[in-house]
Amino acid sequence: MMEYRFFEDKQFIDSKKIPDFVVDKLASVGGIDVVNQGRKIAFCGVIIVDGCIYCFAPAKSESTKIKSIGNLIKVIHSYKNSTDSSLLALDEDEKGKVIEEISLTDLFEIIDLYFSVGILKSKTHTYSEKGRTNWSKTVNREFPVFTSDNVPIYFDLHKYPVSIYQDDLISSIHCEIILDILKKFHWLDERFNFVSKDQLNERKLFNELNVEQKISLLNQRLHSTFVSLEVRTLQLLIRYLEKIQESGSNNIVIGIRKFHYVWEFLLRNLFHNVDQRINSLLPVPKYQFLGPTDFSDASNQKGMRLDVFIKSENSCWVIDSKYYTATGAHDAPGWSDLVKQFFYVKAVKLIYPELETVKNIFIFPGIKNPLSRIQMVYREESKDEEKLAKLTEDFIPIECLYLNPNEVMEKYLKSEKVYITDYI
User: Fold this and answer.
1) Which residues contact 222 (CB under 8 A, 6 or more apart)?
2) CA 217, 219, 220, 222: dihedral to nearest 10 degrees?
3) What's residue 165's pLDDT?
4) Are residues 86 and 220 in the same domain?
5) Given pLDDT bands bounded at 50, 70 and 90, which one contains residue 88?
6) On the CB side of 402, how many CA atoms lie within 13 Å of its CA?
7) Scanning 159, 271, 382, 408, which has its CA 20 to 30 A from the CA of 148?
8) Rounded distance, CA 351 to CA 358, Å?
9) pLDDT 10s digits, 203-237
10) Looking at residue 387, what is its pLDDT?
11) Of 247, 276, 310, which residue constitutes the final position of a domain?
12) Which residues pair with 253 in a beta bridge?
């Protein structure tokens, strides 16, 4: 059985809990942030090393369940395959790119094919005592013995061939790969709970083959079959072995460095009444250049872009997904985040002047609510209520909402949606 160790994104690295070789692996994929106080984890996903799975959960998720890691990897996979991964156009350092030392797409397909068609088998034709008698062949090829009543009796009966399945090298290799996936990734699919390891182990090879020999055998079979499901299965098994050969069977990384992109993707898919058109309506800056020929240039890339906008009847919610720990002013959203949010609200009011209520919201990952509200005040405490009311009107205070990442991921995977009014 694999051992599991749980950590959280944005935590400081404790060398007593995370071995050096895992820290080195994190560093090699850019999963460490160096700050004044030390080194912080900057990675969500799994690192599988020598019989142990190091699980790096989203910040503030307080996760210690194997199922939650399965959900995390499924969500990361969905994010990668979604059109929302176009967010990466804004990702200058490519830290929002998914790291897959084993292809998740291939992995899920291998698992699905196994549960739908089983282990690859070798088909051979043979004669069996249980087969039906081929009378035409028997009469043409054998001499009968006649009874006193002239009834022919045939002692050597020819049988129709019966297709029987025999285990072969291909079946054994397929079993070995499924056992390997079951050992390392059983948390990806609940159907593995009903798989018998003993049955798979019985069909493993007695003589160990190296990875190259296995790939060679699978390729031979691939070039001799025309059954589409078999062809697809063989292609996937070959790719899996090639990846194992490339990265090492006990050294696999799957995850993402900037979980903020996944957090935004999840929130955009969590709520009812999300208006997807808002970003095409928001204003963009236009640059006027002077010279021999005057010209202007509008930049969509540098324009406003809202994470989540919810509009329902006469109300709207202007939401920015914030992947901060936000336990105090030192790690809460900074001035640039606040300015952008205030301006989003101003722009929305210009586009939809008829709206009666405009709510300004940050959504953080977390189970507790350390930060509840951010609002603008004057440096010197003012008791002028009219002046303060005007400030609040121009800079609508930002309500801070915390959602448990594990619950958000579970709802997404079940295609469940919620109403923002259930939380605010």
Assistant:
1) 231, 234, 235, 238
2) 130
3) 45
4) no
5) low
6) 18
7) 159
8) 12
9) 777 667 888 999 999 999 999 888 899 999 999 99
10) 81
11) 247
12) 47
Average of per-residue pLDDT across 180-197: 92
In this structure, are 234 and 334 located in the same domain? no
Least confident of 20-34, 57-71, 243-257, 344-358: 243-257
Taking alpha carbons only, the member of 341, 345, 361 closest to residue 353 is 345
Q: Are residues 92 and 234 in the same domain?
A: no
Residues 113 and 236 in one domain: yes
Lowest mean pLDDT across 147-151, 316-320, 381-385 = 381-385
Helix extents (H) in 118-227: 135-141, 169-185, 197-202, 211-222
pLDDT mean across residues, the chain: 87
Q: What is the pTM of this model?
A: 0.84
Residues 6+ apart with CB under 8 A from 410: 71
Number of domains in the chain: 3
Query: Average pLDDT in the 326-337 region?
Result: 85
For residue 370, give its domain range. 260-422
| 179 pLDDT more than 90 | yes
In this structure, the answer to whether residues 278 and 416 fall within a common structural domain is yes
Structure tokens at 369: 């609510």
Q: Who's near 294: CB < 8 A, 6+ residues apart? A: 288
The answer on 73 and 22 residing in a single domain is: yes
Return d(Cα 64, Cα 44) in angstroms, integer: 14
Q: What is the DSSP string of 260-324?
A: HHHHHHHHHHHBTTB-TTHHHHS---EEEE-SSS-EEEE-STTS---SEEEEETTEEEEEEE---
- Which of 256, 277, 301 represents a domain boundary (last residue)? 256
Residues 81 and 208 occupy one common structural domain:
no
Residues comprising the chain, all counted: 424
302 plus 410 within the same structural domain: yes
Alpha carbon distance 320, 375 (integer Å): 15
